[in-house]
Every structure is written in structure tokens, then in C-alpha cells.
Design goal:
With about 230 residues, this protein is α/β, with parallel strands linked by helices. It has a single domain (about 5-225), classed as Alpha/Beta hydrolase fold, catalytic domain (Rossmann fold, 3-Layer(aba) Sandwich), CATH 3.40.50. Helix content is about 40%, strand content about 25%. It is built from eight helices and eight strands, in the order βββαβαααβαβαβαβα. α1 (about 45-60) packs across α8 and α4 (about 85-100) packs across α5 (about 115-125). The mean pLDDT is about 90.
Length: about 230
């Protein structure tokens, strides 16, 4: 189904014995769709990821923001760092999205923050060509195993704040282990949460540019193949 008008709806996505709350939004004629994997202690209401999602929609991408953990689960710190569980939930969300008529034929990208970045990479490694691109914001890609990082095919962009020195080192370590097309971008003057003026705007612009290049051409190829 071609999306000829804006769509905004709350969704509930089944994943094992729970349902994940999410928000799906699409501009008219989207050029791809990006699923957000939120980090530890964060969810679909994260102001930073909502800001990035708004920028992506202005760039003609649909977005799916969701809570990977229930409220009860999120109170357990161990759950927040259970990468296997987060990846399993994210994979269920991607599966739901692939059956969503409003996203039919669109290339799928993943945007991960904090521990959500490791989950995004694990899903990208498992789903192969079904994931067109990955972006990490202040992420912990180092929490993905060497086996996972070596299997990621999707072009991957790692974005880190210039003042977030510990996380820069962790990203550099993961970056060296990735074998896919990749880039590591440092945002000058930014700390971990990108709260400094203009830094979150830089993240959003970098992400939009990455997805624009990698998702738009994949979506166009799919539409052409369907005739």
C-alpha cells in the first residue's frame, strides 16, 4: 500500500508473552523506515530519540519508536543490559513492521542508543540484507559479541560525543571489529546525552544523511523490482 498521506498511530507489538508499546509515524511517500532501539532506562518517550525521529520524518522516512521492556522489566537493571532479550524484542518489532501495509516494500534501518545499539547490531547480523543500515548514538556496540560484529552486513554509523571519552574508546574497539561498510563520527563538545547546544542537531543530521543514502536507494530498488 502506497502511503499518500501522513500516518500517526500507537501500536502494540506481540513479543513472546508480552506486548510492546510503540508509536508508528510516516510522512507521505516515505523512502524507508527506521526502528528505534532505546537504551538502558529509556523508551519510546525519550526526548532525544523523538527529536531524531522528527528530523528523519522531515527527511521522508517513517519511524517506529517502541519500548523494548515493559514498565516492570525496566525497573530491573539486569534486564536493561540483557542484550539477547533486547535483540529478541527488536527482532519481533522488525517482523511486525515487515507485515505492516504502510511499510510494505520499504527498506528498514535501525537506530540504537546506549545498550540498544548492541541489540540493533545483533538484529542486523541475524537478519542480513533485510536491514539496510544501522546508526548508533552514544551507543554500546562493544556489548555485541565478536561473532555478531563480524556478521553485520548493513552499513553502520557510530556517533559519539567528543567529551564522552570512555564511550569513544568502547566504540573504537567495536569499530575495528566490524567488517561492514562503516563510519565513526565524533561530535565535538558533546557529552554522553548530547545535551549541549547544537549537538543533538548534529546527531540527527548525520543519521538522516546516512539513512538517506543507504535506505533510499534500497527502497527504490525494491519498488523497481516489484514493477
Amino acid at each position: 500500500m502506497a502511503v499518500t498521506e501522513s500516518i500517526r498511530k500507537l501500536v502494540r507489538i506481540p513479543a513472546d508473552d508480552v506486548e510492546l508499546d510503540g508509536a508508528f509515524e510516516s510522512p507521505p511517500s516515505p523512502q524507508g523506515v527506521v526502528v528505534f532501539a532505546h537504551g538502558s532506562g529509556s523508551g519510546r518517550m525519550s526526548p532525544r530519540n523523538r527529536f531524531v525521529a522528527t528530523t528523519l520524518r522531515r527527511a521522508s522516512f517513517a519511524t517506529l519508536l517502541l519500548d523494548l521492556l515493559t514498565e516492570a522489566e525496566d525497573r530491573n537493571r539486569e534486564r536493561r543490559f540483557d542484550i539477547a532479550l533486547l535483540a529478541k524484542r527488536l527482532r519481533a518489532a522488525v517482523g511486525w513492521l515487515l507485515s505492516e501495509p504502510a511499510a510494505a516494500g520499504l527498506a528498514v534501518g535501525l537506530f540504537g542508543a546506549s545498550t540498544g545499539a548492541a541489540a540493533a547490531l545483533e538484529v542486523a547480523a541475524g537478519l542480513g540484507p533485510r536491514i539496510a543500515a544501522v546508526v548508533s548514538r552514544g551507543g554500546r556496540p562493544d556489548l555485541a559479541s565478536d561473532f555478531v560484529l563480524a556478521r553485520v552486513e548493513a552499513p553502520t554509523l557510530l556517533i559519539v560525543g567528543g567529551e564522552d571519552t570512555e564511550v569513544i574508546a568502547l566504540n573504537e574497539s567495536a569499530y575495528e571489529r566490524l567488517r561492514c561498510p562503516k563510519s565513526l563520527r565524533i561530535v565535538p563538545g558533546a557529552t554522553h546525552l548530547f545535551e549541549e547546544p547544537g549537538t543533538l542537531e548534529s546527531v540527527a543530521e548525520l543519521a538522516a544523511s546516512w539513512f538517506d543514502y543507504h535506505l533510499r536507494q534500497r527502497s527504490a530498488a525494491r519498488v523497481a523490482a516489484r514493477g
